Records
---
Amino acid sequence: MITLVALPILIPFVLIIGMLVCRSDKLARWLGPVASGLLLLLTVVLFVFVQKHGVLAIQMGGWEAPFGITLVVDYLSALMLVVSAIILFVIAVYALNFLPDSININRFFIFFFGLAMGMNGAFVTGDVFNLFVWFEVMLMSSFVLITMGRSKDQLEGGIKYLALNLVGSLLFLAGVGLLYGKTGTLNMAHLAEILKNDDQAILMNTSAVLFFIAFGIKAAVFPLYFWLPASYHTPNITISSLFAGLLTKVGVYTFIRFFTLFFVHDPQFWHQILLVVAGFTMVAGGLAAAAHYETRRILSYHIISQIGYMIMGLGIFTPLAIAGAIFFTLHNMIAKTNTFLVSGMINKARGTFELKEIGGLFKESPLTAILFMIPAFALAGVPPISGFFAKFILIKAGIENGNYVITAVAIFTAMLTLYSMIKIWNEAFLKKQPGNGNPGRSYSFSFAEYFPSVLLGIVSILMGIFAMYVFGYTMEAANQLINPDLYIETVLKGIKL
Amino acid sequence: MNSVILQLAAKYLKWLFIVFAVLALIRGHNSPGGGFIGGLMAGLAIVYNGFAYDTFRIKERLQNFPEWLIAGGLFVIVLSFFPSLLLGETIMSGVWLKISLPLVGELKLGSPLLFDIGVFFTVIGVTLMFIFSLTQKR
């Protein structure tokens, strides 16, 4: 049963082999969504087990904890796994209708599952070097996905993406080396235990700074986010949505993991820096999003702005704030992906992403408008939907802890978010079609094309309505992160189920 | 390139490469070596031969060969997970089978060796894929 923990990695792995051998588009069209659905089911089962047992750990190959590679699933990992599996499933369905013919769907799904494997691996691993490996798996798959359309700007975006992320990987590796040199271990639980009882923890600052920059690049925080707007608007919208929902959030996940589990020796310094970075990230991303008039660019900059909130929760560093950060991450993955999906639908209806050339969609397709409204309101933080509660928790935590400046910045950025969402709403849906008022083409969507966005919209609303439960889970996750004793014990003492 | 010396050397050296590759593969479990290094050496043998006799001729013959090697290698890796699972141990645990053969003596075969063989073929496949794409004429 404990092998379940390894399955989120193994299932995509087996699928990749299957699709390499059997190069059939028909099979890929079936296998992609069905297998992602299976993955979703599996992660839900994992989550149920985590609820029962607290933390699940498996020692790969039977090598005991500090020596072998450990896979651990706690509340945070389980929540991330479930939500990212929802996104994977939705994108797999979306790809069937929105992937252009120039992209071979079998090839797409090979690298789609490569990305899934790397991401799930990053979520479940309990070993710092192993985490590096999963990051590389993700990086390679996503580079191939970006350049899949083989156009010049995709290659340019892809190379920028690859180059800046490789710098991140290099710094990550250097940080891993320093960490290993100082402590002699790379097992996260073992590291936490060593650093907890060590008065020389100040020496960790060098590797902490390396990890900070490396994860900063992965998560696209303020001075390090340049790869994101340079690359996210180039690939096909299916692939953009996949990245928007998943890539940066893995960086945020590692931020939360590292800066709660073992870089906690100097919270005055590190978490202050996190707060400053978070503030600048929010404002810089928000302002850039307000300045652009191409949906994908607006939404890409907006991703950055939202990353700021997640880092803000980590920077305040109280259980409530961390719960808020996790809640925000989960809500954002769903809502952000959904806005990208709808922008893909707008593109399909009008053939462009430029807001200045689009208009009148509300009359033509009211359902699309509603589908855009749900994630847009969620992101802006309108009450019944998920984003309100995420922001509410974060702002409450900020005020309780006396971080007034960052709280003010967060509220100000919420206005910017609202502005950029209203901009898309006004331009694409409300205003008349520019020119003679005739779009020159009309397109009516089938149910299969609506389905992914509808599903994500429902998840968003449910997360808002049942915010109590979701908050309960994230609070549980935050408590596990603040008091990592159970985590450490499960990994090191090897509690058998 | 059409060099008689290179071609003659390749004719004998490729076998030497392959012998050493297999050697590195088999001794890899407890000594330096293993599937990755062995795979690189074996890939080198094929590449060396390809350069001596003109890579492009090889490429036509081996059109989808690298992909099949990668898929096959990965498949063998997955196979190596099953012995430990079937015995109810943690996944990827080493399971060893001892057989005694006449002349050779006692032979220890295990799932780590199977895993290494999988890596071996995957690495050959990846090496060939690199070389094929780099030497492609556009």
---
Amino acid sequence: MKKKSVCMLLVLSMALCILPGCGTKSSDTLTVFNYGEYIEPEMLEKFTAETGIKVNYEEATTPEEMYTKYTAGAISYDLLCTSDYMIKRLIDEGQAQEVDFSSMENYGNIDEKFWTLSQSFDPGNKYALPYFWGTVGILYNTKKVSKPVDSWDVLFDGEYAGQIIMQDSMRDSFMVALKYLGYSLNTTDEAQIREAAELLKSQKADVASYLVDEARDEIVAENAVMGVVYSGEAYLGHDFNNDLEYVIPKEGSNLWIDSWIVTSKCKNTEAAKKFLDFLCREDVANANFEFIYYSTPNKAVVDNMDEELRANTAVVPTDESIKGCEVYEALDADTTSLYNNLWKEIKSE
Amino acid sequence: MMGKALGKIYIVLVVLFMYAPIMVLIALSFNASKSRVIWGGFTLKWYRTLFESSAIISAIGTTLLLALLSAAIACIIGLTASLGIYAMKKRDYKIMLFFTNIPLLNADIVTGIALMLWFVKFMPLGFSSVLVAHVTFNIPYVILCILPKLETMDIRQFEAARDLGATSFYAFVKILIPDLMPGIFAGFFMAFTMSMDDFVITYFTKGPGVNTLSTLIYGEIRKGIKPEMYALSSLLFFIVLIMLIIVNISARDNKDKSDLAAY
């Protein structure tokens, strides 16, 4: 009896070992990991039609989620699109492959300044290809706010008490206060961070609510006159309600870049490079831009935009307006726990 | 009199609490504006684009196929398991039931991660891994539905059939299966619903390119859920509503008939 069950177990484990054989991938398949709704779906079909390379496409919602799924090793992703600080973490951990972007046919379409900005998380531009970018700023209702809005000041001077929406995200809220006080948003100086926290505490009485995705809708519905939002949200808000304007405060703000990396697990680097090159091509980048409406680093697309769109600061921020902007850097463990504690104090007071 | 009025108000409030969110969803599915807070006029375009989206259609297909297959496989395994457990001695019976009940009470996320870790070692993540996962968490529900039916069944009929010369297989098909049918059906639908409902376990065990409705909607969260999803959810709501009405009417008809027969 016992022998029999041992035999059964052996057979079962053998069957399980054979199974992976069914799933061996042909060499011309790419497994791509991206944010949800972050590519025009037809472009994937187009890529396959043009190159014969199949795309296995997978979506996630947050960078942390991507990191967990990638490092779990359950699926061997070839290409990954994620946010700046997560790119840095992946590069630091040796999870990215060096790619010679300059040898790509459409390399010239990417605006020079984004290679420079990317240096903050990818020194030497060896790993990351900029895909979309944007800023954080103030979305306000021009009918309800009479004075010109060009500074974070309007969120703190109390004039619009009870009608302000702040981001319910630790880093973004601290960023607003730090920039308003004239500090770097990547500061690790405890005194500066505490000062920012004090400012946020004193502002809390004026804040209608701390929201994330709903912030835009609240302002569109005119339940609040202004709020801190991401530029992509701001563009959609303007679309729904023409009285809304977006501004990047003059003290500067956060600038984020989502980029592609080729993972160290990728074996078919030629195919991966073809995919990246394809994304940089003007018609493809334009189709993706019209699907997503975040700012594109593709200057061929920007040059061919119609005037009205190009004048929209949420879509195409001017060089002048992003002068004071910085890209988030990963914070060290001590600073992170200081942030966490102070944020808890702010929210619970 | 007063109490009756209060009772009615109470019922209205309960129904309102349950259905007001769904009403909002249905209203939004006809909203021409993509915004949740602006009424842009009446439109049916989301219902049209819904059926033009290959991603949504394939997700519906995957969800249904997964639910049907996993429920069917779980029924077969669950049925044989129930028969085995039923025939066990008291102590083994209790131990076995204890182990089959654990997955019911276990948090989905634990099951999901455990299955993922297991699959990583043995098989590529894809449709098949999700199917295995769904069968796994469906089996206890099937056993839970069939076992009580077995308990109340008169096993002597089966023994009589055997005495009269039926092979055990023949007796199984002719006696046991028809008697257990209500339990098997209940188990099947329970498993079907659980599979349709599941997000967490699917999320951890799915491979690239495989999407069920729940994982597809989750992917849309970052950029805002698209109005097509409101349309789809409204359709699902109405399909279930119509099915329930039909079931209720036919149940009433049957009752009328049996009432007649009783006369």
